[in-house]
Amino acid sequence: MDMRRNTLITLGLSTAFGALAIVLARGWINTAVSTQYEQTRPAAAAQAVTNIKTVPVLVADMSLQFGDRLTPQNVRIAEFPADAVPEGSFSDIDSLFSNPDVPTVVLGQMAANEPILGFKLSGPGGRATLSALLGENMRAVSLRVNDVSGVAGFVQPGDTVDVLFVQEMEDTKGASPQREFMRNSERSKTNYQNMTLVQNIKVLGSGQRSETVNNQVVVVKTVTVEVTPRQAQKLALAMRVGELSLSLRQAGSQALNALEVMKGKDLRADRAAPKHGAKMKTKRAYTPKPRSKNTSGVASIIVVRDGKVKQVKVFKDTDTTAKLAGG
User: Fold this and answer.
1) How many other CB atoms are there within 10 angstroms of residue 164's CB atom?
2) Please, which residues have CB within 8 angstroms of residue 327's CB and are 6 or more apart in sequence?
3) pLDDT per residue over 188-246, tens digit each?
4) Which residues contact 219 (CB under 8 A, 6 or more apart)?
5) Domains annotated on the chain, with CATH
6) Which of 116, 129, 222, 259 has the fewest CB atoms within 10 Å of its CB?
């Protein structure tokens, strides 16, 4: 009985000491592993960072608003992972400010440390905006043209042109029925006048192109020009009251001619004189027909009926006809 009791006590103590040893060993192992991990983690992290390839990217050094001018003083370079570089970003100052003569303007709000992206800028490296091509206090106006008034598509961005204005003039004389009929049936060239409205203006765009592509000649429906505010008003009004056409100027020409109004009758005045020795055509002298002697009782009047002019003869009111009428 005593032996059996001793055996049970021995087994119990062995089990307790075994469990205690397992707990102590497990705690020691966990402590050792945690200590080793804490010691090796900074080195592993540093090694991982060292293995990441980075590239320089220009970012905003301050908050920028629409219309602010971008300069080298308000941007800086930051390192970005090579596989996380935003599309349209810039890697150096020279690529962003490739043309110092053309200002770069912010077209959208930018926060500090935000990458500089091309679609938020105008000017070199930015998106193509017509407003960036305008000079100080200048305006862009589009003119409707065709294959004739647009010089057959040979007007290209960067050229200079004159704008011609043709207007139909109203007849300011008395509006008698005969004159009204003549104005509607026979529209003479003298009813039109032409003048050079503006001179030496720069072409900004042809159609929807602001630059020449492969020297291609394309007939477009509109041409956009750079003008002053007053010239913009004149062109807008002229498009409503008449017709406009372009006259292409010689490259580099800056001469301004006196503005002269030309009418239809001036076309006949510019006919060339006949060459020496050439026979000149002579007009046959006009001899009026003698009036009939027996016209004392007949008169001629002009009758306008349904737009037709007709000359008829009627008898004059004499004393005899007056007596027949009971006078």
Assistant:
1) 19
2) none
3) 444 788 888 889 898 888 876 655 555 666 778 888 899 999 999 999 999 888 888 88
4) 146, 147, 150, 152, 153
5) 55-127 (3.90.1210.10), 138-171+179-269 (no CATH)
6) 259
